[in-house]
Amino acid sequence: MPYIDLPHAPGLLSLLQKFPATAGPLAELAQALLRGPSSLTPAEREVIAAYVSDLNECFFCAETHAATAAEMLGPDRAVMDQVREYGDKAPVSGRIQALLTIASKVRESGRAVTAEDVDRARAEGADDRAIHDTVLVTAAFCMFNRYVDGLATWAPTDADSYRMFGADLAAHGYRRR
Q: Which domains does the chain have, with CATH numbers?
């Protein structure tokens, strides 16, 4: 049961409906972070968003962004499951492993990231933009996760809902329609 009066819509959607003054900027932020110019693909950024949401135990965001990443990854959709299971030890590229390490540290505290973490990411092929975008996606998803869970928004429990959300976000992005 949500802590405040919200429309019966899942997770962040209920908050965006209830509070339109912040809905536009939040949707634009998500669009810029997850679909805007980056040396990371939109699928890679969705993987990071889902990973951070998993670490933060935000069920709605983790399921939504894992489904979106899986949809975008297509035949490589198992990558998302591997990241969910093994985190920065998943059998993915060294570049993504290094960026997931940075994401997990930013999630704890921005000050947990070390020069060695950044050097490792660079050695694995991450450029400044990829490192920047990993930190910003992580920081933003910590905010989104706390917003959704801090107000106890409702989240469906069936996988079909998240497959539907993921397909929609993969196809249309985050701009309000």
A: 11-34+42-88+134-172 (1.20.1290)
